[in-house]
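Margin note: ligand = beta-D-glucopyranose.
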Amino acid sequence: MIKMSTGLCLALAGSALASFPLQAKEVVSTADRRADQALAKMTFEEKVRLLHGPMTALVAPAKRPQGVVIGAGYIEGVDRLGVPVLVETDASLGVSNLMDMRKGDVATALPSGLSLAASWDPELARAGGAMIGSEARAKGFNVMLVGGVNLVRDPRAGRNFEYLGEDPLLAGTLVGGQIAGVQSNHIIATIKHYALNNQETGRNVASVEMDEAPMRESDLLAFQIGMEKGDPGSVMCAYNRIGGTYACENKFLLTDVLRRDWGFKGFVMSDWGAVHSSEAIMAGLDQQSGEQLDGKRYFSDLLVKAIEEGKVPKSAVDTAAHRVLHAIYAHGVADHPLQPGQSIDYDAHADVAQRAAEQGIVLLRNEGDMLPLAASAKRIVVIGGNADVGVPGGGGSSQVAPVGGLKRVTKGADSGPAAGFAKRGYGGTAPLDALRAELPDAQISYLDGKDVAVAAAAARTADIAIVFAEKYAAEAIDQPDLTLGEGQDELIDAVASANGKTVVVLETGNPVLMPWQSKVPAILSAWYGGQRGGVAIARVLTGKVNPSGHLPVTFPASVDQLPNPVLPGSAAPAADKETRAVYGLQAGTKGFDIHYPEGSDVGYRWFDRKEAKPLYPFGHGLSYTRFRYHDLKITGGRMLTVRFTVTNSGARAGADVPQVYVTRPRKAKRLIGWAKPDLKPGESREVTITADPRVLADFDAGAQRWVLPASAVQVEVSTSATDPVLTGAAKMSRFNRKP
Ligand code: BGC
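Resulting structure:
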């Protein structure tokens, strides 16, 4: 063993407290001054113009401002003062081109959010963000609606694939990286959907009923960390209600928390169709987006009327317009005018997407070191998952038709709210082609898996069978259960019964159940892999890439283990036919309350509290090499610092993600940090993890402070939320600070 680096500490993702670097502070004050100056020169009409905008596709071409490309929407500028038009595009997984809005347009597709989160790598998030942000700018956009950080509270939720998992520190750290990357292109990013829009069922009508403390310790903490690390120019308020009040008119969220406590200086834009009144401006909403979807011009004609009638003070317009201007100046949007139609180096961008996909793949199981594929495997049968055409992707506003186009396209849903816009399709490099390129000497055949008996027979005569199993997910629709569906469990079971050397590659937007697990020696979770997802899968299967992904979400053993075994709203007396068909309660249907019994103990914390054993725990992920943890040193007091050494004790180079969990008396365990050392065989590295006290503390709503009582805490250095390797203890002194 070579001990390379005693004293070489890895900076820990998630350890730093909120503090903008000096340079950022200077930018803020300059932006303030420039916003003041611009505002002083504006007419009332010009100020109001900054506060609302349409969905571009619904505006006749002749009526659109010059140079506005079709995307999610736009906000007119003030030409005479050099205030640019804001041209908006979705979103987190690439420059979305849903519904062929720009006919035939393609963009580099990043892997899904859960894949990115599985990398546990904020630098990768930044690189992905920088790449998609540069494409957005090249295509003519200066606002990217990127930064979805709603926590995965229910594995059935339709948009989980867009988000960054179930832990506030992990999700907040990664979204911060992503936003900073996007904004490095002088465009504004929009952290969303603020807040507690954790499911699609009833998203326009449901009310999340949660006390302030659990909210602050979970979903709001993810936003808070993301904003500190990413400094987004904008926040998008969500569709749902919280405590009975719509997110986009919720003063507690938009003013007390966002402005007073977090010091946010940018603007709040609404989600598309999430505005319900002009008075929302007084709660802290600054801009109505996609206004045709609201049906009423709340932030233009009706706002002017409300001011005339004395229902809204005129100064509210100044405040909101100033915030929009502030973001424009702080992020260099005015100083870097758009020049749509610039060329894009799609090959270089695909390399970024491939790196992300490779780091997001999680090796869930590898009995008898079945993977990487042995050189002796000459006859391989690949089955199912449309692996002959590409990798799947999720549907909805984030959908990207990748370079090379979307293939084998069908509707994303037969009925319900997603039926109108979600598409199901495959893109990027086909895993089958990629595997053939990686293994030129092997004989690789493909079957679509529709005939189970034929697939099993083919598996019987092959050296190895690789089954691709997929599950489609889309915005606006949750999933009825956690099964793979479409006969895939039966297919895998039959193939694995026919050939003991079966590998399953899961391509899903959510955790799924695996009734066949014990029969299948090797299982990979490859999520939705994006532009080069197929290449990434092939390179992991063959061992060119040593897998290093770790689950950002718990895979439950059954829905009965979930805090809400029945998805909230799904069993409500159906107000319309569609509800019965697919769970989605649309606007206009009766509202309902959502209770989250887990409170701030989302995901693995709930499992810890209930002592429930998941199918695969949060944080889990295997490697083709082995890692050893040793020399644990813990310092308590005011700040918890955990130091230990990681050694690659196997024969291959690889990256590991050691995680540190802390358990306070009578509390569920919490992730306080992690590292990602990349080590050659025999190499060691000491890592240091310093806890952000908020991750350890409780939020005292009465005192409006983060409070950690003096206490003895248990510390675990683990390979997952349930697999401690080193354990120790620390005495923490009392901690008490403002939010
Ligand atoms: C989604 C947002 C998206 C917006 C604009 C809404 O349906 O919830 O995430 O940014 O549409 O496309």
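The first strand starts at residue 73 and ends at 75.
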